[in-house]
Design brief:
Order of helices and strands: HEHEHEHEHEHEEHHEH
Structural class: alpha/beta
Helix content: 40-55%
Largest sheet: 6 strands, mixed
Length: 199
């Protein structure tokens, strides 16, 4: 869901026939197939676009930079790249600068470096894999459970897409970012057990 939503931000801006590439993570990572599936599901919503290349950047900057150099050389008409994490996106940006080219590019994680790149117009958007929020809510859930308070069976959080409309709110260190409100989050996104399941 995360990669599908952020990919759509770039794909919806492209004209029919535009060429798109995917920068995957490590081939042995459990997250790589899921993030790739999200990108490909998004592409399926735009059937007139062309996926012309994909490569593994291994979730690292330097391998992604090298893979991007190869893709850029092979595809001079490439218009967009869907990148599976922000660290690789930073490597792709290096390759683009070397080649004197620009692409519509999106990535995942919401790191401070990626937020800054969004602010500069170098990165169209990044989807925040909001570990700060996960950690805060997880600790609160554990504390409430130990106190005997009700805790939802699941909390399904929506994707936070950081783009030109909201990047300034994210342009701060992790320890300065806003903590989630438990009650508001659970009211909006909590999945409670049924009475039968609780007995």
């Amino acid at each position: 869901r995360l990669t599908r939503e952020v990919a759509a931000r770039a794909l919806q801006r492209l004209a029919p026939g535009a060429e798109v590439a995917i920068m995957d993570g490590h081939p042995d990572s459990i997250t790589t197939p899921k993030r790739q599936r999200g990108f490909r599901d998004a592409l399926a919503d735009f059937p007139r676009l062309r996926l012309v290349a994909s490569a593994h950047g291994y979730f690292q900057s330097a391998p992604a930079r090298d893979a991007a150099r190869t893709m850029l050389a092979a595809h001079p008409r490439l218009e967009a790249m869907l990148v599976a994490n922000d660290l690789m996106a930073m490597g792709v940006l290096q390759a683009l600068e070397e080649a004197g080219r620009k692409l519509l590019m999106v990535s995942v994680n919401g790191t401070p470096e990626a937020v800054a790149a969004v602010g500069k117009g170098l990165l169209l958007a990044t989807a925040s894999f909001n570990t700060l929020r996960f950690g805060c809510l997880g600790m609160e859930a554990a504390a409430r459970y130990l106190r005997g308070q009700p805790v939802p069976r699941r909390i399904e959080l929506p994707a936070d897409i950081i783009d030109e409309t909201n990047w300034t709110a994210w342009d701060r260190p992790y320890d300065a970012r806003e903590r989630p409100d438990w009650d508001a989050t659970v009211a909006a996104h909590g999945k409670w057990k049924t009475t039968k399941e609780e007995t």
